[in-house]
């Protein structure tokens, strides 16, 4: 998250690479507020998922084992409050975005993640909002930021649905109605494929635009490091039928997301 914010600020929102903008206290406060809200979101998600995680990820169980549940709630409230205040220091809009993010994270953990597609779209919206946060602060009007935000939204939807398939066993035992439980794995793959195709079209269009603008390295990176792995992801998705398969697909999504974030560096490079 911090890397994405830094690259958006330094590579997309300033002419050329401007690392000095990362040292300004305004950007530091912007990033700190976003990370505090995100940390609070992870805590409240673990709080509500104690029983589910005991089945799906027993080795990663923290709340209730290493940390008292009451202390976890307190930490969630403190970190969320600090994140909102940090945003308000910058502007009312950033404070409102941080507050909305904190509330959406709470709603996701308490209810939305148990509903078909609603939880997936919630997390995807938050991911896109993170990419847009520096733009909402400085308001440059650069369309590239919105393209990256849309790509982050689509890839996050894909990964969140894949994670739901991976976690079906624990979710089903605790009355969750995620997409694979409500619609079945086969139909869920079709939904995932739809978002994957939309993302592939977006990446291909971005690569073509990069070449047209003379950014050959960026275009090549998008094709080889993002679009090609997306094609591999789609192929493996079709064949996946075991939990470990979907676990590998989820990890594959992380690498694709990292490649997409790193492509921002090439946005300012012209051969």
Structure description:
This protein has 271 residues and is mainly alpha-helical. It has one domain (2-266). The chain is built from 12 helices and no strands. It has helices at residues 2-12, 25-48, 50-56, 69-90, 92-110, 118-138, 143-166, 168-172, 179-183, 185-212, 216-239, 243-266. Helix 2 (25-48) packs antiparallel against helix 4 (69-90), helix 6 runs antiparallel to helix 7 and helix 7 runs antiparallel to helix 10. It is flat, with a radius of gyration of 19 Å. 40% of the residues are buried.
Strand content: under 5%
Number of extended strands: 0
Q: Report Rg.
A: 19 Å
Oligomer description: single chain
Give helix and strand order, one letter per element, not per position: HHHHHHHHHHHH
Largest sheet: none
N-end to C-end Cα span? 28 Å
Helix tally equals 12
Number of discrete domains: 1
Task: Find the structural class using helix and strand composition.
Answer: mainly alpha
Could you tell me the mean pLDDT?
Answer: 89
Q: Estimate the global geometry from the Cα principal axes.
A: flat
Give start-end ranges of low-pLDDT stretches: none
* Helical fraction: over 70%
């Amino acid at each position: 998250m911090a890397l994405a914010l830094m690259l958006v600020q330094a590579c997309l929102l300033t002419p050329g690479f401007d690392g000095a903008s990362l040292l300004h206290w305004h950007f530091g406060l912007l990033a700190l507020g976003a990370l505090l809200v995100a940390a609070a979101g992870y805590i409240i998600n673990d709080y509500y998922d104690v029983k589910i995680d005991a089945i799906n990820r027993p080795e990663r169980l923290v709340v209730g084992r290493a940390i008292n549940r009451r202390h976890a709630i307190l930490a969630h409230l403190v970190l969320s409050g600090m994140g909102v205040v940090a945003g308000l220091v910058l502007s009312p809009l950033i404070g409102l975005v941080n507050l909305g993010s904190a509330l959406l994270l709470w709603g996701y953990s308490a209810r939305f993640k148990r509903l078909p597609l609603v939880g997936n779209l919630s997390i995807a919206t938050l991911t896109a909002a993170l990419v847009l946060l520096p733009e909402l602060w400085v308001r440059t009007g650069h369309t590239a930021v919105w393209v990256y935000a849309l790509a982050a939204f689509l890839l996050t939807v894909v990964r969140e649905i894949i994670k739901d398939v991976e976690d079906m066993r624990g979710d089903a035992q605790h009355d969750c109605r995620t997409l694979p439980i409500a619609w079945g794995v086969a139909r869920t793959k079709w939904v995932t494929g739809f978002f994957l195709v939309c993302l592939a079209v977006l990446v291909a269009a971005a690569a073509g635009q990069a070449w047209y603008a003379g950014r050959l390295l960026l275009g090549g990176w998008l094709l080889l490091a993002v679009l090609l792995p997306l094609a591999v992801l789609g192929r493996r998705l079709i064949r996946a039928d075991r939990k470990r398969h979907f676990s590998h697909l989820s990890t594959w999504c992380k690498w694709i997301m990292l490649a997409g974030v790193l492509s921002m560096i090439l946005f300012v490079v012209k051969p």
